[in-house]
Amino acid sequence: MIEPRLASGVLISAIKRILESEGDFATVLKKGDAVSGAILLIGQVRGADPKLYERYPALDGQPVWQRMDLKESGEAAVQDYWKKRCAGDPDLWVFELDVASSARLDGLLTMFI
Description:
alpha+beta, hypothetical protein tt1805
């Protein structure tokens, strides 16, 4: 049996509205497939130290955010990574968050699965 899941575009829209209503910043850098596009999230704390997360199904089939470890760190490495991923997956969403603290980012990742 296939379990229903929230469409990617709806999830992105919900996260964006909640973050902005609480004073954080969220923007879509690239729109993907509205229904089933994969989501690559760039999380930053006060505009610094960007980290990449991708939403994957866990062994039980439920989605989880997995941190992507890059060989290099920094804004340029993050930009290069997501642009290469988009070239290989035109349905990919790229979503950037800028929040007030690491704890806030961690909480959001567990809230929006």
